[in-house]
Amino acid sequence: MAAVPEVEVVVAHQERATLRVGDVFLKIDADPGRTDVEVAAMALAPVPTPEVRWHRPPVLALAALPGAALGRLGEPSTASPAAWAAAGAAARTLHDAPLPPWPGRGRDELAARLDAECAWLVSNGVLPTDLVTRNRQIAEAALRPWTPVFAHGDLQIVHVFVDGDEITGVLDWSEAGPGDALFDLATLTLGHEEHLGDVLAGYGADVDLDVIRAWWSLRSLLAIRWLAEHGFDPSSPGCEVDVLRARM
Predict the structure, then answer these.
(1) Which end of the chain has fewer CB within 10 Å, C or N?
(2) Which residues 6+ apart lie within 8 Å of 226 measured at CB?
(3) Which domain holds residue 185?
(4) Which tens digits make up the pLDDT trace of 222-237?
(5) Whole-angstrom Cα distance, residue 193 to residue 198?
(6) Which pTM value belongs to this model?
(7) What is the mean pLDDT of residues 102-119?
(8) Do residues 127 and 217 lie in contact, with contact meaning Cβ atoms separated by under 8 Å?
(9) Domain annotation covers residue 217
(10) Contacts of 55 (CB under 8 A, 6+ apart)
(11) Which residues of 77-116 are buried (b: 16+ CB within 10 A; e: fewer)?
């Protein structure tokens, strides 16, 4: 039997695992519907995405992208301002595309989740009450009516790959669907507020900065319990808890 390249565990938790074998990433998802959405979204998206090598639920095989991630939460980004602007331009191209034909998340669902997560954070003593209350107030601005766009839904900087100043591809489309454009922009700049101006320069449209800040608070409040329960530390320097503290 021929030897295979070393298997690298990229991420692994109860819901999903991603392995790298040579130049192929194998994504294994407990919910095959998420990989179905990912494949469909990549086929529709007008921005570079990984090549689908094969898809046999619950496994999706994707070709590795050239270049490196735009950055990581909690670490300084070494990417150039032009690369951040290119990420903003890619987001604008996506948002200008026709909507995908499946439903997105509504404001009522988000508001209910926000209430539940804030109550959990306080009742379990995870965060101080005043920190949760202040960020809950800020988050309200995100829950306004919005015109849906083709949104990535999880546009973290680790999902955007660049080579020099050029975007080589965008990963992880399982949350894609009709959504708020400013949520994508906020996710892209979460913990990297110093690059918001670069992203908006590439995006090329006026946006409400208060709504961007509101999404920073809302996303962080929603994420903390999930991260802690799946082996991640949201209190690491520069991560979600620090994002909330910066709003005080």
Answers:
(1) N
(2) none
(3) 65-245
(4) 999 999 998 899 999 9
(5) 10
(6) 0.94
(7) 94
(8) no
(9) yes
(10) 35, 39, 61
(11) bebeeebbbbbbbbbbebbeeeebeeebbeeeebeeebee
Cβ atoms of 70 and 161 within 8 Å: the answer is: yes
Structure tokens at 112: 């209910």
d(CA 245, CA 236): 12
Cβ distance 84 to 102 under 8 Å?
A: no
Quick check: is 58 in a domain?
no
In the chain, the DSSP E strands lie at: 7-12, 16-21, 24-29, 52-56, 59-63, 68-69, 149-151, 160-163, 166-170, 177-179
Does any domain span residue 21?
Answer: no
Concatenated DSSP letters of 91-150 = HHHHHTSPPPSS----HHHHHHHHHHHHHHHHHTTSS-HHHHHHHHHHHGGGSS----EE
CB atoms within 10 A of CB 25: 20
The identity of residue 159, as a single letter, is H
Identify whether 6 is part of a domain: no
| Separation of alpha carbons 204 and 87, rounded Å | 12
Question: What pLDDT score was predicted for residue 11?
Answer: 85
